[in-house]
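Run log, item B.
One chain of 390 residues. Sequence copied directly from the ordering sheet:
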Amino acid sequence: MDPMPKLPCIALCVEAPISLRGGVSVLIEALIEGLAGDYRIVLVSQDTEEDLKKSSIHHLLSGHVQWQPVHHSLAACRGLALDLKRLDVALVHFHSGNNSWRDHWLAFSPVWFTRRAGITTITTNHTAVTVWDNYCDPAKTSLFKKMAMLPSAWVGKMLFLACLKTEIAVSRHNLDLLRRCYWPWRRFRLIYHSRISKIGPNTPPRDRKKYIITVGHIAFRKGQHLMARAFAELADEFPDWDLAMIGYNAQSACWNEIGQLISTRNLQGRIILAGNREDVADSMQRASIFVQPSLYEGLPLALQEALASGCACIGTSVSGIPELIDHEQTGLLVPPGDVGALKDALKRLIQDTAMRERFFNTAPASIENKQMTKAAMIRLHRELYSSLLK
């Protein structure tokens, strides 16, 4: 009897620890769960072996390579490529959100070394928002300095892309931006990410609590401080409604600003900084309204899941959010950073039960129709890996 053929080996590389349970981390978990029957999978992450053993995907892995972005060096990049080659990796997939893979500074990027090692290399760009991405801080760097740095950063990105078979964007907005910024390179593609396994049954609006939620790590770019201000303006008018912000403290200044507002406006128990929670899906079934007040985004998983769960949703009109919310049909869109517009949208949804009912009926189906499901994401990755490994 012929021996069973050996499955090809792929490596999935994430900047943050899987144990952090951030957006990219849970997507990597979903890919591992969905692809483990087709490939031997090596994970590259910051996780310690002890933390990884506590995860749900540890038993599905063929190997793990610990990677510390703060120790980035030529030797570390070369060492990562050698480790992947030793583990028989045929394809490596880097997931980039905060430039840990140095996509504008090729000399210090692992992609140069994985390509030289003969490993098929691809990336997913989770945060393509502006032309300044990943080589300077758009909020703090002066325009003069941005412009001075742009030529070398652009060339660095083009050299980075030359090492890849493809770069994946997670929203149509991100795809169009990448194509405009790096127009000579033609290998960008779109794959919507998702961890939604099934849609429905959902709790009807009449059975939900007078409860508003946001989900995401607490940071100024996520806009929870603006959400708190908008709710504070409505708190006296609607005393039976509460707001809960679910997510870990990623930026203490933002967390403290919200805490200060709660204290000065005497909103203890009305605005709740809930921290990380394991019952987010249950919270979405209990809540009447979900808000994504981000100043910039890729394609927010929490908003995607809130729409699928039947929450009446509000989002800002940035990045991939308008691809999730069809304004006035499946939810409401407001300009980013506009507290007044956010307050008005909240007031509309609080007062208009018929609108909440309408969004409950239209939003979940829209997510399925747009192929924003875990099954679709896994299928598209499987097809991509298969075509590249041939």
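Observations after the first pass:
- The chain has two domains: 9-196+373-389, 205-369.
- Residues 143 and 149 are 10 Å apart (CA to CA).
Flagged for discussion on Thursday.
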